[in-house]
Specification:
single chain, 370 residues, alpha/beta, Rossmann fold, Tyrosyl-Transfer RNA Synthetase, two-stranded antiparallel ribbon, 11 strands, 50% helix, binds tryptophan
Length: 370
């Protein structure tokens, strides 16, 4: 880890991530054109997050597709550590998971790890993380999932179901494994040390192989799960990884739910969004208009442009014209920010309404222990 100038772990992301190096470091595979074509063949569509490399890496996605083509179904699983309100970066893997679910017509499990965030954050009580779990669940439901094929697991609520599976997993992980993967020390609380087995448990909740769309920072947990799976007679989970979504203040580091200013929450008002983007969104523009017109902006580092690319502008033609105008200096930073503000606010207007409706639906989504 120390040989790189970036760090990616489930609890800490820092520096400017070199994704080629990360793929090597983690031992994952880049999503090839061949896999893209194969997904398209099965779904009849090609998702912009795949096309643009927002989802860039995988483990054994080929196997899942191959099985699917032979008529053998999989199920989907992803999750969220409820350490705060949901921010727009969290929605990336969830929106993509919804697309996969629709296209492949499969079941979906969403795990809210209230225990994990309680263990990991000194300032949070278990009540806090439970409260955020329910808040986060509303955002997930608001994306259009259906209770008939989607279940939400909350760790402290569903421990009765999770524990027997977690126990199978835990028996096959020793302290030196998890220490090696996560850098735990003698001072790490033992909740953290056991935790990977709980994040693994939903992988084995159905008697089918699982595919997990996830932020690449979560890969280390499932590296362990994949080693354990054959030892307990289960298929290895397949993974599809998305890049880390940059914080408003700039590249290097993921959007953190605990840094207020670097974050647009799904509950923010239109004026708050406007203020945050205008004030904090890192700009790839030049220091003044004259230079900007002459030299142009740099969309690669511009956070507003990146948010459009990653999430808010699915239309390739529109995105390209924004890219080209910004790069040539024809479009100013203020104008680019204006486009993003408009996009986020019209998304949030609908999202916040659905989030309200979700309050009446949440019961139907909660996984019931058997
Ligand atoms: N540990 C994850 C987080 O902090 C939450 C999580 C639980 C998760 N299960 C998952 C994330 C499966 C991705 C896939 O956000």
């Amino acid at each position: 880890m120390s040989t790189e100038d970036f760090v990616v772990t489930p609890w800490h992301v820092e520096g400017e991530i070199d994704y080629d190096k990360l793929i090597k470091q983690f031992g994952t595979e880049r999503i090839s054109d061949e896999i893209l074509a194969r997904i398209k063949k099965n779904t009849g569509e090609d998702h912009f997050m795949l096309r643009r490399g927002v989802f860039f890496s995988h483990r054994e996605l080929n196997r899942v597709l191959e099985d699917y083509e032979k008529g053998k179904k999989f199920f989907l699983y992803t999750g969220r550590g409820p350490s705060g309100h949901t921010h727009i970066g969290h929605l990336v893997p969830w929106v993509f998971a919804k697309w996969l679910q629709d296209k492949f017509d499969v079941n979906m499990y969403f795990q809210l790890t209230d225990d994990e965030k309680f263990y990991a954050k000194a300032e949070l009580t278990l009540e806090d993380t439970r409260k955020f779990a329910y808040e986060n669940a509303l955002d997930f439901i608001a994306l259009g999932f259906k209770p008939k094929n989607t279940k939400i697991i909350i760790n402290t609520r569903n421990i009765q179901t999770l524990y027997p599976i977690a126990a199978q997993v835990a028996k096959k992980i020793n302290f030196s494994n998890t220490k090696g993967v996560f850098g735990f020390t003698n001072e790490t609380n033992i909740g953290m040390i056991f935790y990977t087995s709980l994040q693994s448990a939903p992988c084995f909740i159905e008697d089918k192989p699982v595919l997990i769309p996830l932020g690449v920072d979560q890969d280390p947990h499932f590296r362990i799960t994949r080693d354990v799976a054959p030892k307990i007679g289960k298929p290895k989970p397949a993974l599809i990884h998305n890049i880390m979504i940059p914080a408003l203040e700039g590249p290097g580091g993921k959007m953190s739910a605990s840094s207020e200013n670097g974050t647009v929450y799904t509950t923010d008002s239109p004026s708050t969004v406007k203020k945050k983007i205008n004030k904090y969104a890192f700009s790839g523009g030049q220091p003044d208009v004259e230079q900007h017109r002459k030299l142009g902006g740099n969309p690669d580092v511009d956070v507003s442009y990146q948010y459009l690319r990653i999430f808010f502008e699915p239309d390739d033609k529109k995105l390209k014209s924004i890219h080209d105008d910004y790069k040539s200096g024809k479009m100013l930073t203020g104008e680019l920010k204006g486009i993003l503000i408009e996009k986020i606010n019209s998304f949030l207007e609908v999202h916040q309404e659905k989030r309200e409706t979700a309050k009446d639906q949440i019961k139907q989504f909660l996984f019931e222990n058997k």
